[in-house]
Each structure stands twice: as structure tokens, then as C-alpha cells.
Amino acid sequence: MVDVDGVLVRHPDPAGWSVHLERDLGISVQDLQRYFFAVHWDDIVHGRAGLQARLSRVLAEVAPHVECGTLVDYWFAHDAHVDRLLLDDLIALREQEIETHLATVQEHERARYLWTTMGFGVHFDGMHYAALLGCSKPDAAFFHAIESRTGFAPDELFFIDDKMANVEGARAVGWRAAHWTGEVGLRTLLSAVMD
């Protein structure tokens, strides 16, 4: 089980996909955070509301010159920097008949983008994400839902994530898990928890 943002997808700038948003589209990052993410994101990412419906309303107020689709396209394209070394390692594991899955906090549209447009559907056996499950990491319900969907027992699962709280959440339900920093390779982390 592999996290996406901060692990498999890592933006080269610590500020992330929106670092040049104001320059490129004339949208204030602060306004987007205050009026969109802070207010609407929890409902969207847990599948209780649609991304475009909520975002369109906010843009009409804070950036009426930008269409919702334009911002979504910009966001997804600028948040698509794949850690190719990690992906290659995961592909190699899968070639050894070890199932690989994504366990991530996403809403439905970006989940489809990751799976289809970015091609993760070719390389992974499944993707389990917050909007589909109705809960997110590090809630135990997130991990239990994945167990139910895959049929794997907790001790059969190995998980990497860049947030220690999520690693600890996985461990608390019996998963083997490691903190991903990008400094230690996948096989080293896997060997350490399997010994």
C-alpha cells in the first residue's frame, strides 16, 4: 500500500502545485485556501460534495475571470510529478506477483486523473481513496475498509506514507508500515519491516 501525495507524487517545490497560481491564473492562493479548502475540502474529499460544484461557487466570488475547469486542469497537471525511481521499484515488485495498491486521500476527480490520465491504473492492482471510502487516514476505518476491499489480513499489508501520523495509524490496526522520506529505498524499508 502506497500513499500518493508526498510519496509517489512529489512536487519539486515545497510550496506545491499552487506555487505560481497567482502569476499564471491570477488567483490568490490565500483566497483559495480560506474560501475553498478551509470551508469545502472536508466534504469534497470524503465524497459528500462534488469538486466542481463547490469550486465553481468559490471562483465566482474570488476569481470570476477563471473557469472552474481551467483551475482543475491546472491543479492536476501541476500536481503530477511522479517519483519515477519509486514507481519503477513498485513495478518490479508487481512483476514478482506482489500486489501493489494506492492508499490515498483524494476526491473523485483527481482519483480518476491519477488512475487514468497519469496511468497508475496500468501499474497498480487497486486504488483506495477517501472519497470512495468516506473516511481518511489516519482513521482506523480507512485501513479497515481497505482490508475489506482487498481481503488481506492486517499483517499481510505493508504501507508507506510521508506522514508519521498515518504510519502510526496503520500500525495501530496491525499493518506493517514505514515512514517514507525518499532517502531510503523501498526494498530497504520492506526488508526492515519483514525481518
Topology:
Blueprint: H1 21-25, H2 29-45, H3 51-62, H4 68-78, H5 84-95, E1 101-104, H6 108-117, H7 120-123, E2 126-129, H8 130-133, H9 140-150, E3 158-161, H10 164-172, E4 176-179, H11 186-194
Parallel strand pairs: 1-2, 3-4
Helix pairs in contact: 2-3
Keywords summarizing the entry:
mainly alpha, 11 helices, 2 domains, 195 residues, two-stranded parallel sheet, single chain, globular, Rossmann fold
Structure description:
This protein has eleven helices and four strands. It has 195 residues and is mainly alpha-helical. The chain has helices at 21-25, 29-45, 51-62, 68-78, 84-95, 108-117, 120-123, 130-133, 140-150, 164-172, 186-194, and strands at 101-104, 126-129, 158-161, 176-179. It has two domains: 16-78, no CATH class; 84-194, 3-Layer(aba) Sandwich (Rossmann fold), CATH 3.40.50. The two termini are 18 Å apart.
